[in-house]
Design goal:
By secondary structure, the chain is α/β, with parallel strands linked by helices. It has one domain: Metal-dependent hydrolases (TIM Barrel, Alpha-Beta Barrel), CATH 3.20.20.140. The protein is 38% helix and 17% strand. The chain contains eleven helices and ten strands. The strands form two sheets. An eight-stranded parallel sheet has the order 1-2-5-6-7-8-9-10, with helices on both faces. A two-stranded antiparallel sheet has the order 3-4. Strand 9, helix 9 and strand 10 form a beta-alpha-beta unit. Helix 2 crosses helix 3. The longest helix has 15 residues. The relative contact order is 0.14.
Length: 286
C-alpha cells in the first residue's frame, strides 16, 4: 500500500474531494495529514527557478550561498518569503481541521498533531488529541516557527514514552537546526527529519544511518530533487526513507512523487518499503 507520510490539509488549494480523487487515481492507500501553516502560495517565474537551484546549492560546493538563501525564506517577523513576496505563517496550527477530515474518512487519513512550543503548551495540545482515532505522531517546524530544537524536549520525551514518531523540519542555524539534540537526549525516540534532512542533507544522513529509530522523508521536490533523493537512498538504505509529497504546497501531485520513487534503481521490495512499508512499520501498524 502506498502511504503519503507528509501532506498538509489546505482546502483553499485542494479540497478533500479533490485529494481523495487523486488518491484513487494513483492508488494511494493512505495520507498522513498535517494542519496548514501558511497562506496559499505558488512559486512562479524567478521564484520557481530559485527554488529549483536550492537543493543543488545546499548539497554542493555553493553551500555558502545556499544556506543563506534557505534561511531567507522566513522573515524576521515570521512570514514565508519567496524573493520578496511574503505570506503569513500560522503560529497556531489548526489540528481540529485534520481531526474533522479523519473522522469523515477514517479509512483514508492519518494525522500528525502539529505543535508549536514557542506559543502554546505542546504537551497540552498533544494530550488533547492523543488516544483519539487516526492520530499517529507529532509534527514540528523549528524553522518556520522560529524556535530552538531544545524547546521540543518535553514533546520528544512524551513521543518516546508513547512510541510515537516525531516529524521535524530543521532550521538553518545552530539552535533551530540541531539534529543531534533530541536523539541524544531521548535514545528511544522515533525521529523523522523532513525533506531528507534539509538543509544539512549529508550531515544528517551520516548521523541517521548509524542510529536506530531515525529516518527521513523524501517530500517536496523544492527540497528533494532527483539527485538528493537518490543520494539519500544510497546513503541510508531504503529502510530509512519515507515517501511523502508535502502537498499541496509542493504542487507535485501524488502521482508524480510516487513515480519518482518507482523510477529509483531499487528492488521492488525496497520501493514498497519507501512507498509505505516503512511508515506502517514505524507507526506499529504492520
Amino acid at each position: 500500500m502506498i502511504v503519503d507520510a507528509h501532506y498538509h490539509l489546505e482546502e483553499r488549494m485542494e479540497t478533500v474531494d479533490e485529494l481523495l480523487d487523486q488518491m484513487e487515481q494513483h492508488s494511494i492507500g493512505r495520507v498522513a495529514l498535517i494542519a496548514t501553516m501558511v497562506d496559499p502560495f505558488h512559486l512562479e517565474g524567478v521564484a520557481a527557478k530559485a527554488g529549483a537551484i536550492l537543493p543543488k546549492a545546499l548539497a554542493g560546493r555553493w553551500r555558502g550561498l545556499g544556506l543563506p538563501l534557505y534561511k531567507s525564506t522566513v522573515t524576521a517577523d515570521g512570514k514565508f518569503s519567496a524573493l520578496g513576496k511574503t505570506y503569513p505563517i500560522y503560529d497556531v496550527p489548526d489540528n481540529k481541521s485534520v481531526a474533522r477530515v479523519m473522522q469523515a474518512h477514517p479509512d483514508k487519513f492519518y494525522g500528525w498533531i502539529f505543535v508549536n512550543p514557542s506559543v502554546a503548551d505542546p504537551i497540552a495540545e498533544l494530550e488533547k488529541w492523543a488516544g483519539r482515532p487516526g492520530w499517529v505522531g507529532v509534527k514540528s517546524h523549528p524553522f518556520w516557527h522560529r524556535y530552538p530544537v531544545a524547546l521540543l524536549d518535553d514533546v520528544a520525551a512524551c513521543c518516546a514514552e508513547r512510541d510515537w514518531p516525531l516529524l521535524m523540519h530543521l532550521g538553518g542555524d545552530r539552535e533551530r537546526g540541531d539534529y543531534r539534540y533530541l536523539p541524544e537526549r531521548h535514545p528511544t525516540l522515533k525521529l523523522v527529519y523532513a525533506h531528507a534532512g534539509v538543509p544539512f542533507y549529508q550531515q544528517v544522513w551520516e548521523y541517521v544511518k548509524s542510529r536506530d529509530g531515525l529516518s527521513v522523508d523524501l517530500s517536496n521536490p523544492t527540497y528533494v530533487n532527483g539527485e538528493i533523493r537518490l543520494d539519500a537512498v544510497k546513503t541510508l538504505g531504503a529502510e530509512k526513507c519515507l515517501h511523502g509529497t508535502d502537498g499541496p504546497y509542493s504542487h507535485a501531485g501524488q502521482g508524480r512523487m510516487a513515480q519518482a520513487i518507482l523510477r529509483l534503481p531499487l528492488s521492488d521490495a525496497e520501493k514498497e518499503r519507501i512507498l509505505g512499508g516503512n511508515l506502517i512499520e514505524l507507526l506499529g501498524l504492520a
